[in-house]
Amino acid sequence: MAKKNHKQSIARQGNNQVIHTTYEEDDNMMPSPDLLMHYNELDPSFIEWFKNRSDLEQRARIKFNDDRIKLAQSTNTKLFTIDLCSIFVSAIIIIAGLLLSYFIIQAGHILTGSILGGGTLVTYAIRLLNFRKNKNNSEN
Predict the structure, then answer these.
(1) Could you report the per-residue pLDDT of 71-80, keeping only the tens digit for each?
(2) pTM
(3) Which of 26, 61, 92, 113 could form a disulfide with 105 if both were Cys (CB 3.0 to 4.6 A apart)?
(4) Domain residue limits, the chain
């Protein structure tokens, strides 16, 4: 079944020292052929039972991995939808700010309208540029 082998050797040459570590692990679910023959002698139905159990375990592992992949895909889809909605709402706010600035300029308040329009563009440009950066920093 699961065989582990751990070897460590130290080689010295003058003032230098080299540590060589070898670690092997065989996580094979199948017992060795000798052990299978021994189990088969004890119980003739063992090999069939073992094959059924191995098949059942393999199916459970595959299902578990498939479920994890589906969960990751659904999470990515939801995050993409939220990001898209955030960008859409930001675009609407930018357009509304610029329209308000346009109407203020048309009403004769050129300086106020220009400051509002420029402030709207600069503020949301900075927020959109930092949007991904903030998301990536929160994951790390």
Answers:
(1) 999 999 999 9
(2) 0.52
(3) 113
(4) 2-139
